[in-house]
Amino acid sequence: MFTRKFLFQTVLFIVVFSILFIQLYSPFSSTYWFTISESYKLVGTVTMYAFSVLFLISSKILLMDLNRRHGVGGWGLVLYSIAESFVVSLIYMAITLLVKQDNVTLKELFPKAFFCIFLILVIPYIIAYLYGYAHGLRVQSGSSPSRPNGALIVSIHDNKGNIKLTLRIMDILYAVSEDNYVKVFYEQDGVVKNSMIRTTAKNIEDDLEGQITRCHRSYLINIAKVKFFNNDRDNLYVILDQEGINPIPVSRSYRDSIAALLSK
Hints:
CATH 2.40.50.1020; 2 domains; 3-stranded antiparallel sheet; 6 helices; 10 strands
């Protein structure tokens, strides 16, 4: 769900939802000032939305990076939403103090602003993530209703979150990291092919969690495709069951984990 396209669509959803929310909430607010009938308030309205959207887009890019590096769980998303609401509230208060003519105190303004902005952010988030979760369940159930694990369909994304390769896990052989790219090798109609994707080995691990294993700083392998493991301390490598593929090196730091996986 943390793809660039999904998160940016969430920002668009928030903008549309905020317009509807403000129209419903405005009769009950004493600090509401958004309008298009007065020029200086129109400038304030446009400025508020412009700064907020730019901040949210930047925030989503940061969220993607945090999720890629450390993983962001449910509570992490809650705390992140609170932090976003706080920043957007500060933007709203600053612009309000400039465009609203009657006296309004920060003590009165901040709680109302934070409450409304938190709802404006969180409600679309909940709807979007529930939709994304349900969609993921539909895709998962539809792609492999009663097939063995090896027949699972998996997708590999690039650094921008775009899907670049979709195939069966049983067809993946190995992947090798090359600078800012990862070359994924797979079998198709009995022929070994490869696809160069602008991403990182860590992203590949995240996309294929539990399905592909790192055996070296630059190499990842499909453990189900290993037919021989040379466990000599001075010459560690694996051989896959596909002809024409050279032995793949195994570093000492991954020796024990590879041996443990193969012994299962």
